[in-house]
Design goal:
With about 160 residues, the protein is mostly beta strands. Helices cover about 15% and strands about 40% of the residues. It has a single domain, classed as Electron Transport, Fmn-binding Protein, Chain A (Pnp Oxidase, Chain A, Roll). The strands form three sheets. A seven-stranded antiparallel β-sheet has the order 3-2-6-9-10-5-4. Bound molecules: flavin mononucleotide (FMN). Flavin mononucleotide binds near residues 55, 58 and 83.
């Protein structure tokens, strides 16, 4: 069987443009936790389900497991620094005035939209865990901004095509 190494796999998958999100949850001390993710997806409309794939080494999965829920925060094109901050270890929420979704998951200010969900299933898949969540709340945020998109290892935004 032909094997595909991590470098080429990462490079090829990096050619699939992805909307950038920050996945958030409260830990056991009700502290906000979060990390940047593009491996998120809408799964089902009825019932409404989403998924996120989280690396086993990441810290946020234990918060997701503890609270049993998470929120997806959809970043806008102004938010590249926020994306980098949430992809790096440290005091990610310092100086950020976050608020809460109905069931308590942290929401970042100025986002395009968000969903909050309850974990229905967590599936171990290779070196990641797939958290499938049933959406319990969702809302549109800023409508005057474009999305933050990750493609080819860099940040972009979108341009509408002529009809
Ligand atoms: C643009 C971008 C997309 C990312 N997408 C994911 C992803 O989908 N899943 C994942 O586990 N990590 C992803 N990461 C890496 C995590 O954000 C990073 O490992 C983070 O430090 C994990 O935080 P935690 O250990 O505090 O949970 C991405 C990073 C960047 C910059």
């Amino acid at each position: 069987m032909m094997s595909v190494g991590p470098r080429i796999f990462r490079e090829v998958m990096g050619r699939l443009a992805g909307g950038v999100t920050v996945v958030t949850a409260l830990d056991g001390d009700r502290r906000a936790r979060g990390f940047t993710a593009t491996a998120v997806c809408s799964v089902s409309l009825d019932p409404p389900l989403v998924l996120v794939c989280v690396g086993r080494e990441a810290h946020t999965p234990s918060a997701i497991r503890h609270s049993g829920r998470y929120a997806l925060n959809f970043l806008c094109s102004d938010d590249a620094a926020t994306s980098d901050r949430f992809a790096t270890e440290g005091s990610k929420f310092d100086g950020i005035e976050w608020h809460t979704a109905p069931a308590g998951s942290p929401l970042l200010p100025g986002i395009l939209a968000w969903v909050e969900c309850e974990v229905e299933q967590d599936v171990e898949a290779g070196d990641h865990t797939v958290f499938i969540g049933r959406v319990t709340a969702a809302a549109i945020g800023r409508t005057d901004r474009d999305p933050l998109v990750h493609f080819g290892g860099r940040y972009h935004t979108v341009a509408a095509m002529d009809p």
